[in-house]
Amino acid sequence: MNKIQHILIVDDHPAMAYGTKFILEQEENIQVVGVATTGEMGVEMMVELNPSIIFLDFHLPDLTGMEVAVKMRELNKDVQIVIFTGIDYMPILNNLLELGVCGIMSKDSSEDQIRNMMRALKEGQSVIPISLLHQMRLSHPDDDLSSLTDEEINIMNQIVKGATNEQIADEIHMSKRSVDNYVRKIYDKFGVKSRAQAIEKFLQIKR
What we know:
By secondary structure, this protein is an alpha/beta fold.
């Protein structure tokens, strides 16, 4: 008898979370044991429910998928983590792989792609989209800056000079909240957690 795979879904979009749950539970020996809507809730449910596989949204209300994955791996080094994301994940790929993430999927993935991902995981395989492998083959370090928009590059140049988000907002005539959102997107693209790390990454790319 095949072992039942217990799965936890961490996604703050109900349609995505329960749509994924429905697709997964059509497969044999699959049981979705819980759905969490925040990163902290996901970590708590992982400890409580002990799933073997976690489908993790990269953008959550409280934490990034990177931060959640780090916490989960610290608590359970054997859990398999699949990242679901709607962003360009090329800039953060190395960070995800270093964490031991075993799968990366676009939120635009079809039902068949999700099922194929699940079957591969059950066989102990990692799954990365072919399109991403092509990008890995064609890219080089200087390409990374192209992942930033003009606004994000402008904001990073201000950050390097030591400006706060409030000062940047005044300088470029934008609300502080908008600047905060841009900075968070930059962190996600760089796969970093702090201002210092973002500056270091930005300066490395500009060399």
